[in-house]
Design brief:
The protein has 180 residues and is of the alpha+beta class. The protein is built from four helices and nine strands. A six-stranded antiparallel β-sheet has the order 3-4-8-7-6-5. The protein has a three-stranded antiparallel β-sheet with strand order 2-1-9, with no helix packed on it. The chain binds zinc ion.
Amino acid sequence: MNRLLKLLLAAVPAVLLVFWMLPANAGRTAEAKGEPSQPLPAHIAEAPPETDWKAQAPSYWTEHLSSEVVQVCRDGGTERPWSGDHNNTKAEGVFHCSSCGAALFLSDAKFDSGTGWPSFTRPVDNSAVDLHTDTSLGMVRTEVTCATCGAHLGHVFDDGPRPTGKRYCINSICLLHLGS
Ligand SMILES: [Zn+2]
């Protein structure tokens, strides 16, 4: 028993020393620290600041975006629920438009809606998105598009949590998480 006690007494300071020597943020992922979790696509990084994104021809988007992004974000489709990278992420920072790089939503406004799509209570700024009445599929919904490039993002509903009561239901594939 005494030998076990001695072993424990020797082991505890050693373990504490190892933890003390670890950097304070060891074990935290880049996402948890709010650092960029996705690279900025080249077509956004290399675009001149004065780029008129809404004037880009359909051929520009098919050249620079994947067919999956084009189908949802340029052609108004909907990704399968629970299929997107950003549905469950708790990453801190800013979610940007995957077409043009404009800042759209903050992680602070993200909540788990249980729908299978990333959901937010508000955009980063009301001017970041445009809202349109959408009567497709026999329903009256409010479509959300990127105010900078016109990308289809998703829809907004009035069944969200406080404080806004809004649920911005956004296709994950239309978002880039670039950190804070
Ligand atoms: Zn955009």
